[in-house]
Amino acid sequence: MNLEVRNITVPFTALLWTWIVLSLFPDWWAAFGGIILIVGVMLTQKSSVNAWIQVIKRHHDWRSETDMRVLVTGGAQGIGRAVCEKLEQLGDEVISGDLQEQDGGIHLDVTSEDSWEDALDSVGPLDGLVNCAGIRTRNLIVDTTYEEFQKHLDVNIAGTWLGIRGMFRRRSSKAESSDISYASIVNIASVNAVIAVPAQAHYVASKGAIVGLTKAAAIEGAALGVRVNAIAPGAIRTPMTEERLVDPQQVAWLEGRIPAGRVGEPEEIASVASFLLSDGARYVTGTTVFADGGWTANGV
Ligand SMILES: NC(=O)c1ccc[n+]([C@@H]2O[C@H](COP(=O)([O-])OP(=O)(O)OC[C@H]3O[C@@H](n4cnc5c(N)ncnc54)[C@H](O)[C@@H]3O)[C@@H](O)[C@H]2O)c1
C-alpha cells in the first residue's frame, strides 16, 4: 500500500520523537541537538518514516483519512448488524435502517418509496450505502404463491434499487456544485446468484438480479462519483440461517462443499463491505465479490 506522510501523522511523529529524545536527554541543549539530528534523519530517510507510519496505521488498512457517513439497511441483525459494528469500530458514522425496532437506528421499509425518501431526507448526505435487508423462504416452485415470489422481488431487488435511486438522485443535485467526492454503494447478493439450490427459486431469482443491477448501476453511478459493487456471501451464520445450521446433516452437507471446510461468520462479510466502501477500492466498481470460502469455485 502506498502511504503518504499526511498532515496529521507528521506532527504526531515529530511530537513522539521529541518526547523520546527529551526523556533520554534531560539536558535541554542535548535534547535540542537530538531533535535537530532526528528531524534531519527523518527528512533524508522519508521511506523509513513511511514504513514506521505504516505500522502505526496498520489498523486503518484500506481506509482514507476521512471517516464516512453510511446507511446500512437490515442493520438490526445478522450481516447488517456486523457491518454496522465493523464501520463503527473504524470510526464511521453509521445509521442502521430496518423494519425492526432498534436502539439508535431508524425505521426503514426498503419496499416503500415513501419510507426510503423519509429515511434519506432525515439522514442527510451519505458517503456510503450498504443494501443488506433481505428475506428468504424455502418452498418448491409448485408450492410457492405468487405473493411469496413477488415479496422476494420487492424486498431483495426493488428494495436495493430504491436505495440506489435515492442516493443517485441526491448525488445528481450535488453534482451541480463543484464539490463532488466519491461515494460507494455495496449490495448484498448471494452465491445463489450463480449456483441454485432446490426450494429457493424465488430467492435465487432475486439474488441473480442483484448482480445485474450492480453492473448497470455502476456504469450510471460513475458519472455521479458513486461506485457500486456487490458481495455474494456463501453460508453465513445469522438468524436467517439459524434453523438450517442447527441441523448437523445440513452443516455436514455445506462443509462438504465449501473448500474452507466451515460456514462463514457475519464479520467475514462486514470486512469485505468495509473494503468496498473504502478509498482502497476506489478503482473497483460494477463487480461482485464472492465471500464464500471457495464454495462457488468448487466444481465437485
Ligand atoms: N446468511 C446467509 O447465509 C446469507 C448468504 C447469502 C446472502 N445473504 C444475504 O445477506 C443479507 C442479510 O442476511 P442475514 O443473513 O443477515 O439475514 P437476517 O434475516 O438475519 O437479517 C435481515 C434483516 O433485514 C431486515 N429486513 C427484512 N425486510 C426488510 C424490509 N422490508 N425493510 C427493511 N429491513 C428489512 C430484517 O428485519 C433483518 O434485520 C440478505 O440480503 C441475505 O439474502 C445471507
Specify the biggest β-sheet.
Answer: 7 strands, parallel
Instruction: Using the coordinates above, name the CATH class of the largest domain.
Output: Alpha Beta
Question: How much helical structure, as a percent, in the residues?
Answer: 40-55%
Give the overall silhouette.
elongated
Give a count of the beta strands, DSSP E runs of length 2 or more: 7
The poorly predicted ranges are 1-7
The end-to-end span amounts to 36 Å
CATH H level, superfamily name of the largest domain: NAD(P)-binding Rossmann-like Domain
Tell me which CATH architecture of the largest domain applies here.
Answer: 3-Layer(aba) Sandwich
Q: Are any ligands bound, and if so which?
A: nicotinamide-adenine-dinucleotide
**Mean pLDDT across residues:** 87
The gyration radius over C-alpha positions equals 23 Å
Question: How many domain units?
Answer: 2
| Topology-level CATH name of the largest domain | Rossmann fold
Please work out how many helical segments DSSP would assign.
10
Major sheet strand order: 3-2-1-4-5-6-7
Structural class: alpha/beta
